[in-house]
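ASSEMBLY PREDICTION REQUEST
Request ID: AP-0331
Submitted by: J.K., bench scientist
Number of chains: two
Total residues: 570
Priority: normal
Notes: Please return the full assembly, not individual chains.
Input sequences:
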Amino acid sequence: MDHPIVKLQNVTKRIGKRTIIDRLTLDLPLGEVFGFLGPNGSGKTTTIRMMVGLMSLTDGEITIGGYSVTKQYEKAIRHVGAIVENPEMYKYLTGYQNLIHYARMIPGITEHRVHEVVRLVGLEGRIHDKVKTYSLGMRQRLGVAQAILHKPQLLILDEPTNGLDPAGIRELRDYLRQLSKDEGIAVFVSSHLLSEMELMCDRVAIIQNGKLIDVRTIRGSQAETESLRVLIEVDRPQGAIEALLTIGQSAVIDGDNLIAIEADRESTAAINAALVAAGIKVYGIRTHVKSLEDQFLEVTGGERIG
Amino acid sequence: MGNFLQLVQNENMKIYQRPRTWIMAGILVASVLLISILWVSVGGRDTSMWEVAFIESSILFLLVTIFTVVIAAGGVAEEFTSGTIKLLLIRPWSRSKILLSKYISIIMFAVMLAVLLFASTILVNWVCFGINASPEVQPPIRGLNGISPVSYMLQYYALTLVSLVVTVTLAFMLSTVFRSGGLAIGFSLFLLLGVNSFVALIAMLEYKWIDYLLFIHLNLTQYLDGNPMREGMTLGYSLGVLGIYYAVFVALTWYIFNKRDVAA
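STATUS: Completed
Returned structure:
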């Protein structure tokens, strides 16, 4: 966190009277996969467009690697690779020609590197075919290829799993995680696929109606001490609640033969012992972890596009 | 940073990798062949090759203009409609330079087509009319000072190329402003063909402002034969007016392209 490669400060975008992005402030560190989550129309793509200089900022500032995107664009964008929305390529050129096209625009990309990237995304067999014959998944792979061609320090991918099959999604996910860990680059991924984000990202920023609502850590070690919601299946719920009251643990009935308690890992074992000692039959104990989806719906209030 | 020539190379690749470009070049050469062969089979060989070459050039230069306008109008607009503009712009190059590389490649295409037309008319008509021509057939004397046919042709091409560059720049501007290839092609060709057919009529009007109309000055070859469309107009004056229009087109194109939010 001490070396953020991207800094968004009070970024605001107004088109006419509508405020699309409202004072968004966000830091992205190197070596993390950072998710950008929000319902449709919340301003994800607009933010990404501003980060890569396709749109102007009404107010605020974005710096990448210390260079302002608005004032020193050529330096700021030098170490950025991106796909904005769909990976649109020149359909009348071959995949290879498309890559050569982008390779020519950045100094120091050798032909060897182009071949390396083609292998990496698994397009060796079709790279000399015209892009118009490619499937969506293959275009997505070509999109990733052009984005990593120059070994960027920041990789921005807008909905990267669109059109990929499950194997492709898994491959991409592993690859992105490996890139961020091994090469120490920052990966910024936007998506509406919550479960996908959960598997892919270290942290997730949640945006709604152009406002940053929350930044959550997904991979962390706080689970051990965190208080969880535990569901216990017993034969006599009422008796179980009374037995638990004697050890000072409050519980509520939650469905047929189920009681729910808030407890951490250690006390769950003690509670089980107390129930058994009170002669209550315990059929099952499970912890209920809130998924990102629950958290997301909780913070966005399940609201519709507004 | 980087090599600007590679950007031009990219734009050239995008022009010449498409079949339509070669179809255009093919149509141009085929038209030259067709006219010459028809001429030989109907009228025989008793004509100067320069006469035929000149007539073909004056007819077919319109094709060069139309084809170049099509390419120029597509230049920026197609990047927007296909969405590739996003991936093109997020490179360490300023928008002005990316636009310049496009413009240069289009001007190169215009010049290439003009050279192709010139070369094919000379070559085809030399074969059809020049080899073993009867010594009695004299090249026609055209122009003011009775200059040689070669230098007359070269002057003709030079003047027409100037107007072609202005027309192409206009189409390029419309392409950038409208971001729609169809609209840019349609509008440019309408201005070019539609207005040009009225231009002789308009030129007869007495109003002063007509002297500043672009279309009065687009046909520079009027000075080659020494009968300008409007009285008192000189080549220098026409070039001056075209220069001003050109500067305005270029300024507007670059200003808008730099300013615009890309939401394609």
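REVIEWER COMMENTS: Chain A has two domains: 4-217, 222-288.
SIGN-OFF: pending second reviewer
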